[in-house]
Design a protein that fits this description.
With 239 residues, the chain is an alpha/beta fold. It has 9 helices and 13 strands. The chain folds into 2 domains: 2-108 and 196-233, D-Maltodextrin-Binding Protein, domain 2 (3-Layer(aba) Sandwich), CATH 3.40.190; 112-192, Periplasmic binding protein-like II (D-Maltodextrin-Binding Protein, domain 2). Helix content is 39%, strand content 22%. The strands form 3 sheets. Strands 5-1-6-13-7 form a 5-stranded mixed β-sheet. A 5-stranded mixed β-sheet has the order 10-9-11-8-12, with helices on both faces. A 3-stranded antiparallel β-sheet has the order 2-3-4, covered by helices on one side. The chain is globular and about 50 Å long.
Length: 239
C-alpha cells in the first residue's frame, strides 16, 4: 500500500509539472527492438519510433528528449515520472490500460510470428521463449503453452539457438530480418493476432498530453505520412 501511494503521488507531481508547462517532454523507449527502436552506432535512439516521435513532437510544437529504459520497468518508470510518454512498440491492452492511458494507435495490430530451428515444431508441446511483460508472453500463458520469459528480445532468440527453447514468439517485423540473416532459423507458418495495435503510453494524470499526441497522430494518418513511415520501416500493415 505504501508503494502504491508513493507511486501515485509521484505521478501526480509529474502530471502537475506538465500542466504547468515545463518545456521538455521526455519520450521513453527501450532502444533494443529494431526496426521499431534501437541504438545506432553513435548510441542515439533510431528506428521507426524515433522518426515518428520526432515528427509528432514537431507537429505538436513540443520540445522532446529521448530516454532509454529497460522493458520490464518501462511502465513503472513512466508512472514514477522518469519520462512523460512511452513510445516503444507497446501494444494497447486492457491490462496495461488499467495502469496507464494510451493514445490512439499509430500502427494496426501486427501479426506475431514463431521462429525456430525447424519448421516442424509443435507449438502446443513446445517450450516457447518470449520477452517478459509482452503480449506474446501473456498469450502463451493463456493458451497453456510452456513459456520462458527473458528480459530482452535478443535473449529470446539466443534461447532458441542454444536449445533452451524450441521457438520464440514475437512481432513478425522483429523476427523477419533475423531469420533472413541466419540460415539456421525459420519463421513458422502459424501466426497469432494479439493486441489492439501500438500506441503511446501516457500517465493517467496527463490527459492534455494524450490529446495533444492524439491530434498529431491523426494528422499523420490523414495526410498519409504515417502509412509512408510504416511502409519505410516495415513494422506493420498500413491503415
Amino acid at each position: 500500500m505504501k508503494l502504491l501511494t508513493t507511486t501515485t503521488a509521484l505521478a501526480l507531481v509529474a502530471g502537475m509539472a506538465f500542466a504547468d508547462g515545463h518545456s521538455v517532454v521526455r519520450l521513453g523507449t527501450e532502444g533494443a527492438y529494431a526496426p521499431w527502436n534501437f541504438l545506432d552506432d553513435n548510441g542515439e535512439v533510431a528506428g521507426f519510433e524515433r522518426e515518428l516521435g520526432d515528427e509528432l513532437c514537431a507537429r505538436a510544437e513540443l520540445t522532446c528528449e529521448w530516454v532509454t529504459n529497460d522493458w520490464d520497468s518501462i511502465i513503472p518508470n513512466l508512472v514514477s515520472g522518469n519520462y512523460d510518454a512511452i513510445i516503444a512498440g507497446m501494444s494497447i491492452t486492457d491490462e496495461r490500460d488499467e495502469v496507464i492511458d494510451f493514445t490512439t494507435n499509430y500502427t494496426p495490430p501486427d501479426p506475431s510470428n514463431y521462429m525456430a530451428l525447424s519448421a516442424d515444431v509443435d507449438i502446443m508441446g513446445a517450450v516457447v521463449a518470449a520477452q517478459v511483460n509482452t503480449i506474446q508472453a501473456a498469450f502463451l500463458a493463456e493458451k497453456g503453452i510452456t513459456v520462458l520469459e527473458f528480459a530482452t528480445p535478443e535473449d529470446t532468440v539466443a534461447a532458441v539457438k542454444n536449445g533452451e527453447a524450441d521457438a520464440v514468439l514475437a512481432d513478425g517485423s522483429y523476427l523477419g530480418p533475423i531469420a533472413e540473416a541466419d540460415a539456421d532459423l525459420v519463421i513458422l507458418e502459424q501466426t497469432e493476432s494479439i493486441g489492439g495495435g501500438v500506441g503511446m503510453g501516457i500517465r493517467e494524470s496527463d490527459g492534455d498530453l494524450r490529446e495533444t499526441f492524439n491530434a498529431a497522430i491523426q494528422s499523420m494518418k490523414d495526410d498519409g505520412s504515417l502509412n509512408a513511415l510504416i511502409t519505410k520501416w516495415e513494422v506493420a500493415s498500413t491503415f
